[in-house]
Amino acid sequence: MENRFGIRKNVVCAAACVILAAVSSWYPIPANAQGCPSIPPLTGSYFIWNPIYVQNNSSAGATPFANALSSWSAGIFGLSPYNGGYLDIRIYNASGSPAWVAHTSVYDQSGYGCSGYEDTCGVCMDSSVIYEAVIHLNIAEIADLASDYSKTVAATQESVIAHELGHAMNMGHSPTVSSCGSSLLLMNPTADPVVACDVVVPTSCDYNELANIYSGRYPQSFCGSCTEQTCYQ
Amino acid sequence: MNYMNAILVSVGIIWQLVGSMVMAQNRSMGEEAIRPFSSRTTTITQRHLPESLSELLASSPDVIVATCEGELPARLSVRDDPRSDLVTDRLLRVDRVLKGKIAPKKQIVVQELGGIMHDGQRVTKQVINGQNPIQVRSKYLLFLRPLPDVTHDRFDGNRYSITAIWAGSFHLINGRIRLSDAVGQGLRELEALTEVEVLERVRIAASR
């Protein structure tokens, strides 16, 4: 009896495993309510103001830069070129290791003058709030990438800048996809398929995921500097 | 004397006002502020992520098993450029060579992105998203590439980087392997194997 029960249990378990494996191979990427592959937030830090101002100090072309900014305009943020006022995202060249195409560093409020105090909207200036973001572009690697897939340098720069702007707004990477299709998002972890498949602007899923990441914390107009109200007990 | 005091007090007040204006800031106006502490999280976009041992092997001139004996202070990857990446050198003793020309028992340096830098007045921290940095007193299977960078220390010529930034770092712990969080699914499946099984697979593949 004990053995028979054990065998039955094993059979049921094996069947369940087969079904699970079949389902997971048929639909391997977890999807959200909109049917989009899920993109996690990059850090616990978010921009709390809108629009966001971006400065291009790199040698990437002015047109790819402008196109990349406007490509996010259907998202929840307005991205504008730096006009001498606030500056939220800076873009620089980097040579660095040839192993990477670009990277983005997000700085939170830790260590800045307002750290531990509320702003005039009552938001605590702590590690949950982005101070600024810095994008580094490996221009030589981007040129190689364009060449390897017979794409224009401008289109490749635009794609890479748009991807990094997603990181600067606190988007992580989407699940890895290596082939063209609707599952391949701008926020794919690897640049090769994104460039090869001409994903130059955010897809509708990229927009959806940005909105999901900022769900319940939609950024608003800048609230001004900090108050003297501390937010730590 | 009173005149001097008045000047000093005025200078003090102005200094405090300027200081509070600079300090009471939660959004950049384009200036490069010097901060006592800054923390950044960096996400790296690579062209391609290795998905198999054979891919890792093909991209790695040297493959070793080594134990981390120590860590050097983090430094800027580009001297005097505070915007450049932090890098941390870790000293490893080579236990076993599976591929390449590194001598067994030799001490080498593996340079990884990120770290915490103290320069007397400031503390700067950089975390690389998805990377599990090498830990002191831990053992690793490492897929390495020689770094040609010259930093004018005794490790020039013996400095290596991990293949695909984090993908080639296999933490050997309790008979199993642990990979960085950002590795691809193909490599992730190796975590189901034991340390012995993975090392044997690498040995066989490297000998082909």
Note down, in words, how this protein is organized.
- The complex is a heterodimer of chains A (233) and B (208).
- Chain A is an alpha/beta fold and 233 residues long.
- Chain A has 2 domains: 1-30; 33-230, Collagenase (Catalytic Domain).
- Chain A contains 6 helices and 7 strands.
- Mean pLDDT of chain A is 85; it is low at 1-28.
- Chain B is of the alpha+beta class.
- Chain B has one domain (38-207): OB fold (Dihydrolipoamide Acetyltransferase, E2P).
- Helices cover 22% and strands 35% of the residues of chain B.
- Chain B has 4 helices and 11 strands.
- A 5-stranded mixed barrel of chain B has the order 2-4-5-9-8. Chain B has a 3-stranded mixed β-sheet with strand order 1-7-6, with no helix packed on it.
- The radius of gyration of chain B is 23 Å and the shape is elongated.
- Chains A and B meet through strand 4, strand 6 and helix 4 of A and strand 1 of B.
CATH homologous superfamily identity of the largest domain in chain A: Collagenase (Catalytic Domain)
The poorly predicted ranges of chain A are 1-28
Number of helices of chain B: 4
Radius of gyration of chain B: 23 Å
Q: Helix amount of chain B, in percent?
A: 10-25%
Intertermini distance of chain B: 87 Å
> Into how many domains do the coordinates of chain B divide?
1
* CATH architectural type of the largest domain in chain A: 3-Layer(aba) Sandwich
Bulk shape of chain A:
globular
Alpha-beta content class of chain A: alpha/beta
Major sheet: arrangement of strands of chain B: 2-4-5-9-8
Mean pLDDT of chain B: 87
The CATH topology of the largest domain in chain A: Collagenase (Catalytic Domain)
* Strand order in the largest sheet of chain A: 2-1-3-6-4
Q: Which percent band covers the strand fraction of chain B?
A: 35-45%
Itemize the secondary structure elements and their pairings.
The complex is a heterodimer of chains A (233) and B (208).
Chain A lengths: L1 H25 L25 E5 L5 H10 L7 E3 L7 E5 L6 E9 L8 E3 L10 E8 L1 H10 L4 H16 L22 H6 L7 H10 L12 E5 L3
Parallel strand pairs in A: 1-2, 1-3, 3-6
Antiparallel strand pairs in A: 4-6, 5-7
Chain B lengths: L1 H22 L13 E10 L6 H6 L3 E10 L3 E2 L9 E14 L7 E7 L1 E4 L4 E6 L10 E8 L12 E4 L6 E5 L2 E3 L6 H4 L6 H13 L1
Parallel strand pairs in B: 1-7, 5-9
Antiparallel strand pairs in B: 2-4, 2-8, 3-4, 4-5, 6-7, 8-9, 8-10, 10-11
